Amino acid sequence: MSNRINHENTIERVIAWIEENLYRPLTIENVAYRSGYSRRHIQYLFKKKTGMSLGSYIRERRLVRAADALRCTSKKILHVALEHGFDSHQTFTSAFTQRFGKPPGKWREDYMSSQSAYRLILFLRKPKAPA
Questions:
Q1: Are 92 and 125 members of one domain?
Q2: Domain range holding 94?
Q3: What pTM value is reported for the model?
Q4: What are the φ/ψ torsions at residue 27 (nearest 5 degrees)?
Q5: What is the pLDDT of residues 5-57, one digit of tens each?
Q6: Are residues 103 and 45 in the same domain?
C-alpha cells in the first residue's frame, strides 16, 4: 500500500515539475532523472497512473498552452511554436492540426471570428436604457 502511495506521489510531483518546465527542452530521460526512476519505470508508472504515455502528456500540455497563446496573443505562429517546445513550424503545425483538427493559423482565425460574432450578439442583446 505505501509503495503505491509513494508511486502516486512521485507521479504527482513529476506532473507538477513538467508543468513548471514545459517551456524548457524536456526529454523522457531528464524527467526520469528528476523522478529518480529509470526511463522505462517512470514511463510505466506514468501510464499506469494517467492512462497516457509520458511523451503524449508533454506534447498535449504544450499544444494546449500553445493554443492558449494563439488565442490570447498576436505572436507569430513560429514564435508560439518555438516558445512551446516545438523545433519547427512544420512539426508544430502537424501536431496542432492533428490535435485541434485545423492548422494553427486557421484555428486562430476561426477563434477570433467566433469571438467577434459572440461580442456582437452580446452587444445587440443589451437592453436599451430607458429614455
A1: yes
A2: 55-131
A3: 0.80
A4: -120, 160
A5: 576 789 999 999 999 999 888 999 999 999 999 999 999 999 999 999 999 99
A6: no
